[in-house]
Amino acid sequence: MPFATLGLRAELCRAVAARGYANPTPIQQQAVPVVLAGQDVLAAAQTGTGKTAGFALPMLQRLADSGRPLRPRTVRALILTPTRELAAQVGDSVSAYGGELRLKSAVVFGGVGFNPQVTALARGLDVLTATPGRLLDHLQQGTVSLDAVEILVLDEADRMLDMGFIRDMRRILARVPSDRQTLLFSATFSQEIRDLAGQFLRRPVEIDVAPRNTTVERISQEAYAVDKTRKRELLSWLVGSNNWRQVLVFARTKHGANRLAEQLEKDGLRSAAIHGNKSQGARTRALEGFKSGDLRVLVATDIAARGLDIDQLPLVVNHDLPQVPADYVHRIGRTGRAGRDGRAISLVAPDEIGLLRSIERLINLRITPQVLPGYEPSAGAASMVSPEPRRGGDRRPAAPADQQRRRPRRRRPQGGGLSSATTR
Ligand code: AMP
Hints:
By secondary structure, the chain is an alpha/beta fold. The protein folds into 2 domains: about 5-210, P-loop containing nucleotide triphosphate hydrolases (Rossmann fold), CATH 3.40.50.300; about 220-420, P-loop containing nucleotide triphosphate hydrolases (Rossmann fold, 3-Layer(aba) Sandwich). Helix content is about 40%, strand content about 15%. A 7-stranded parallel β-sheet has the order 3-4-2-5-6-1-7, with helices on both faces. α15 (about 325-330) crosses α16 (about 355-365). The chain binds adenosine monophosphate. Adenosine monophosphate binds near residues 21, 25, 28, 47 and 338.
């Protein structure tokens, strides 16, 4: 199904063709006509589904169609994002898609100079992409007004809530006219998201293209059992011996991410860390270095990695398992994008086995840790093997048929030792 059948103008169809998109993704197929019709949308879709074009293309078309003149310091469409990286990426997409429509757009986020942003806002904008904190600074300074907003997009709203932006979001929403069109994108529909939607959306059309299981279907998921103190060594060995060239590694804390990147550098692997305490310049440099192939390993925290758009990322490694199982799905969603196969590897210490079990329950798939010779965990190893199925069968919920086919049933461990069955 070509883009034109969705009702998009020739300028926008040319813009997506120039980016090499042949056909709309499922979120685009569903969202574009609804947004073009002026309806509110509540969409469950993560990064990697093509959601940005899903809201940006019809939004640009509506702005171009109504063609209202710009007033100084006003904004016609506002896109709120949780992180600077996502704001920059969304801003880039908006200007790329809207190139032929002569709409004015800009991005504002913290950590960079205020005054250039004031200049960008001064003459008015068709589209502003912003993070909440810096946008509030501008509102307080009177350098922008939201009185003329026609379309509001809350991108990765669940992550904005996770990052504690709810009060900032409310303050911003209070400044936006109530007769606007609102589009809310979130990886999941939690109760909090539904509450937010109930308050700020008007009879939204619900779109759900990312049921939890299907998002991870194309990703092979493996785990290695290893002591916490030897994870870095195992990681270096895996990267080196497999000659992996581009690996996104997740660490739980900013400090842990820094330390890991430094140690990997000492092991001879070009690495950098990306997290919220890094300056904007350092984050951009690290991302560019990783994309260009100068860096082999990018170590990221969950928040910093959220929304990173890196094409064809082959491999994600969880150096630490996430505390929140849903974050595992977000993490591994960085690989296997746009229909390609991906691979996710988790390093699991004995005290993380409970976290692994919660993840397995969420994704409805068993991931039995393998043990590599020389890296056998010293303590608590027995607990890394799942309890034997009870009589009458395993109590776990059945995985979808295609996933069951791709993984062998767990074998009984020989002699009470560790199982090394893989789950691919
Ligand atoms: P997003 O979910 O918006 O972050 O987009 C994920 C990736 O998919 C980005 O690299 C986009 O450039 C790419 N993309 C978006 N729409 C399409 C499409 N229709 N066909 C192929 N790639 C796409």
